[in-house]
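step: validate -> pass
step: tokenize input -> pass
step: predict -> running
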Amino acid sequence: MQKKVLVAALVLILGLTFVGVAEDKIVIHHTGAFSGEVAQLNELLMEEYGSPSTIHGKMGRVYNIWETGNRTRLVSSTTKVSMPNAVLSPALIFETLPEKYEPDLATHGGICGAVLQESKIMDVYAPYAVAFSGQGLYGPEGFKPGTTSTWDPASDDFVEPVWLRTDPVLTELLADGFKSAKNDSGFKNLWEESTLPYEPTLHRGVVQVSSSYFVANDELNARWAELFRIDPELDKDKYNVRGDWSVKDKIWGTYDGEVHEVGGLDMETAAVVWTFKQNEVPVAVLRYPSDKARSEAEVQIEEFGQTAAAVGGYSFFYGLRNIIESVEEGELTVKDGKAVIEEETG
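step: predict -> pass
step: emit ->
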């Protein structure tokens, strides 16, 4: 009788321990500003991890949840388009979801306009940093979202920008995922349907810029690239300088002292990164240009929508799988708001 009691107690203890371990998971949350990317990603995740559970949150947000291993849980959602939505969506994650679904790590993606001269439509940017601006550049032959008023760079002052660092460890894992995506037969088939006469290229170390404005021609595009590049020798006379400051002062995160050119332009990335960093959640980004950020952007976005879904969906599938496997193998953890690869000892 005493042996049975001891066995029962041991089973109970082990059971409680197992439950505790099972619930003590690192939660990875992916947010996509482009619904096509999220749909393609979810399809691939279902093939790999089965059907997700779903939570319907506030203001139409839907969260798909996968139990991806003993140590990891993955949540996928859409931010919706625009800078205000990009701030709101991550905030709603913390407001709406139960604590066990709140993110420890985050990734973000979506389409954008190409600013980097050497980049092509459907290349991929893995940003070193993102830039946040409430101002922007807009040309008469272009277009602007909603009822946003225009800003004339010839007559108005430009307030110095603020840059936010992305997490370097997560960025590297996502970048490696893009390489794997290019070798996937499913991705190759979808890419061939685009009839684009080249393979997509990964651009590392760039700055991804977010604003409520679009650019519309070569001149304004070049001006945008000039204003938002990170350069230790940056000419502050281009800005409305408020007090003494340096580039290092305007970067949230560690700065390597190097020049980082502008990659792409979108409306959401900086707001998403800012919100997650406010909550000490490491975040990495991949953005892929569906257009050349010129007056023909609307046509190009529609033309390459399916290809964009493939680029984003497959890249994040393999990138997220890299992150999941790294956590499951006990290599990747989170410390002080940063993703850290633990070095083996012994």
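step: describe -> The chain has one domain: 25-332.
step: cleanup -> pass
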